[in-house]
Amino acid sequence: MYRSSRPSLLALLCGLAVASLPAASALAAGTDESSPLIEKVRHATARFLNINAALAEGWVPATPCVSGPDTGAMGVHLVLPPRLDDAVLEATQPEALIYEPTASGAMRLVGVEYIVKAGVWALHNPPPAVPALEGNLLNYVGEPNRFGLPAFYELHVWAWEHNPRGSFADWNTQVTCDHQPVSTAGGAPTR
């Protein structure tokens, strides 16, 4: 019987698979927290770490703290109204800032959301174009929806709070609405 000193193709492939496990595992466990988009968001929104700066620049409360039954939360959304009717997406100009109510009563910036109304998008972009921001497709939210908005596209970017589900996932299990003030009557408290 002839035996080669060279490894068989199967042995070689198995060896390559085993050797690539640490790299694949690191990629799967890794985060996109240092992506260029996240860095742009942090740079553009650092001044809004204090919610009063956002309010002073015209950002208005759009939602109370948005949470899911078992998926974490999104937080309190503040929007800049003129941006909601714009079909242009820019990394440095999110349509919404997202804050988490804290136990001390303060509001902590955790991320942003890019939003474009589906009707506005369709007026400026022929089908089947879907809005994207720096290679990230926005998610479509039909109507009716929990926000009372017409159909829209959205993308969350968790630039200020780690999200185990990914920096661009809708829900963040690290964010909670447990400290939402009892009555915000359509607004976010300033503290």
Summarize the helices and strands and which ones pair or pack.
Layout: H1 9-29, H2 36-45, H3 51-56, E1 60-61, E2 66-67, E3 73-79, E4 96-101, E5 107-117, H4 118-124, E6 132-133, E7 136-137, E8 139-141, E9 152-157
Overview of the molecule:
- It is a single chain.
- The protein has helices spanning 9-29, 36-45, 51-56, 118-124; strands spanning 60-61, 66-67, 73-79, 96-101, 107-117, 132-133, 136-137, 139-141, 152-157.
- It is an alpha+beta fold and 191 residues long.
- The chain has a domain at 36-157.
- Strand 6 (132-133) and strand 7 form a beta hairpin.
- The longest helix is centred in the first third of the chain and has 21 residues, at 9-29.
- The radius of gyration is 22 Å and the shape is globular.
Keywords:
191 residues; alpha+beta; 7-stranded antiparallel sheet; two-stranded antiparallel ribbon; 23% helix; disordered N terminus
Short description:
This protein is an alpha+beta fold and 191 residues long. It contains four helices and nine strands.
Give the SSE order as H and E letters: HHHEEEEEHEEEE
If you average the pLDDT, what whole number results? 81
**Largest sheet, strands/sense/barrel:** 7 strands, antiparallel
> Which regions contain 5 or more consecutive residues with pLDDT less than 50?
1-31
Helix proportion: 10-25%
Distance between the termini: 82 Å
How much of the sequence lies in strands comes to 15-25%
Number of helices: 4
What is the radius of gyration computed over CA atoms, rounded to a whole number of angstroms? 22 Å
